[in-house]
């Protein structure tokens, strides 16, 4: 299939581009490069051995989005594009609602105009909120995220559910990610957060490569085995392959719109992840115990059985793989992607 990947120059989008090409699909990328470096495109073309057409504009521009579907033959869409920093969403809720919702509706209007009826959406375990029993199951109905970012994801899930129900033959998979980490084993693409990383793995990697003095462990007084929070970390290549599995499952799906957890089903603590990274680097890494971070939940992980039963997908890479692949990327790219200009479509 010819797949439009929105946000395809981003962390998860770029890894999914590689898996899509490996699975024999053609890819077109649209990205506004607000949270991605253009030089990733050249890396993708080297990795895939193919030209990756890139359209650089903001999906909130409905006219440009409609033009894109006129210019490019699109069979399906994987929609990653959106703002995704939880803390920032608390400070700038209006920007998050405007950007994440408008870009999605602009995309849906163009899809309708061009009769494109296959969509895979990048959702998040954040939609479950803090009341959901662990492991999180897709049947949990009370989606009450605790932050505007998560609420945009839950709202978009609702929009997609309603639009799919009203559009004959439309099929949508809502992929609820747990904690994506890691990098392509080549070491040429990986996570490259701008500024100070919010998330654990890139922060540890930047400590290891000397960009940060130490890791702050946000609390060691939680009711867990070692006192630090536990999360379901998932290798980004497993996640990318999950998107291909979902895309290829759509035509067989009975429901018009269906959520799937993409996680391992196992929790790992902050300190356990730090120790695993130290093993990958071959030396101890400095850390300090810091106060708890507001909004952090103690522990959650996925019930991954639906994705395995229906998509034929399960995570196969280990915490050690996640750390080794992250370290290869970070040590070979200490400052992330170089600046530069993107080749155009
Ligand atoms: C993991 C654990 C921190 C940094 C977030 C978003 C979620 C999703 C994934 C988009 C927590 C601890 C972290 C640090 C630390 N993103 N930590 N020191 O918060 O589970 O999920 O990213 O979909 O929506 O909420 O991931 O990596 O930020 O934190 O101790 O410097 O690591 O307290 O316990 P989180 P995270």
Automatic annotation (TrEMBL):
Mind telling me which GO cellular component terms the entry cites?
cytosol
NAD-dependent epimerase/dehydratase domain: residues covered: 3-255
* Domain of life of the source: Bacteria
Q: Name one Pfam family in it.
A: Epimerase
The pathway entry for this protein reads as: Carbohydrate metabolism; galactose metabolism
Q: Give the catalysed reaction(s), semicolon-separated.
A: UDP-alpha-D-glucose = UDP-alpha-D-galactose
Q: Name the CDD domains on file.
A: UDP_G4E_1_SDR_e
> Gene3D superfamilies, per this entry?
NAD(P)-binding Rossmann-like Domain (3.40.50.720), UDP-galactose 4-epimerase, domain 1 (3.90.25.10)
State the Gene Ontology terms under molecular function: UDP-glucose 4-epimerase activity
What does this protein need as cofactor? Answer: NAD(+)
The EC code for this enzyme is 5.1.3.2
Q: Which GO terms describe its biological process?
A: galactose metabolic process
- Enumerate the UniProt keywords alphabetically: Carbohydrate metabolism, Galactose metabolism, Isomerase, NAD
The record's listing under InterPro entries reads: Epimerase_deHydtase, NAD(P)-bd_dom_sf, UDP_G4E
Q: Which NCBIfam families match?
A: galE (TIGR01179), PRK10675.1 (NF007956)
| UniProt subunit comment | Homodimer.
What family classification does the UniProt entry report for this protein?
Belongs to the NAD(P)-dependent epimerase/dehydratase family.
What is the name listed in the Swiss-Prot or TrEMBL entry for this protein? UDP-glucose 4-epimerase
Q: Which organism is it from?
A: Nocardioides bruguierae
Classification from the root reads: Bacteria, Bacillati, Actinomycetota, Actinomycetes, Propionibacteriales
């Amino acid at each position: 299939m010819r797949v439009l990947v929105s946000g395809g120059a981003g962390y998860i989008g770029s890894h999914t581009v590689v898996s899509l090409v490996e699975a024999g699909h053609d890819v077109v990328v649209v990205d506004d490069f607000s949270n991605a470096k253009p030089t990733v495109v050249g890396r993708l073309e080297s990795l895939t051995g193919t030209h990756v057409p890139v359209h650089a504009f903001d999906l909130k521009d409905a006219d440009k989005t409609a033009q894109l579907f006129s210019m490019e033959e699109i069979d399906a869409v994987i929609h990653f594009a959106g703002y995704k920093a939880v803390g920032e969403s608390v400070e700038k809720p209006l920007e998050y609602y405007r950007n994440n919702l408008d870009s999605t509706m602009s995309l849906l209007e163009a899809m309708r105009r061009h009769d494109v009826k296959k969509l895979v959406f990048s959702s998040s375990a954040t939609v479950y909120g803090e009341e959901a029993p662990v492991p999180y199951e897709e049947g949990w109905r009370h989606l009450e995220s605790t932050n505007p970012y998560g609420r945009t994801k839950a709202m978009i899930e609702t929009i997609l559910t309603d639009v799919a129900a009203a559009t004959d033959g439309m099929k949508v998979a809502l992929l609820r990610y747990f904690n994506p980490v890691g990098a392509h084993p080549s070491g040429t693409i990986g996570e490259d957060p701008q500024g100070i990383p919010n998330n654990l793995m890139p922060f540890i990697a930047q400590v290891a490569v000397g960009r940060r003095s130490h890791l702050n462990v946000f609390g060691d007084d939680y009711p867990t085995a070692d006192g630090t929070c536990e999360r379901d970390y998932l290798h980004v290549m497993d996640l990318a392959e999950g998107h291909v599995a979902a895309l290829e499952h759509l035509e067989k799906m009975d429901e018009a719109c269906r959520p799937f957890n993409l996680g391992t089903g196992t929790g790992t603590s902050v300190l356990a992840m730090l120790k695993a990274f130290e093993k990958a680097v071959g030396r101890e890494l400095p850390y300090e115990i810091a106060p708890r971070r507001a909004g952090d939940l103690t522990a959650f992980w996925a019930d991954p059985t639906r994705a395995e039963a229906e998509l034929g997908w399960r995570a196969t890479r280990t915490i050690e793989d996640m750390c080794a692949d992250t370290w290869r990327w970070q040590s070979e790219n200490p400052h992330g992607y170089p600046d530069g200009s993107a080749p155009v479509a």
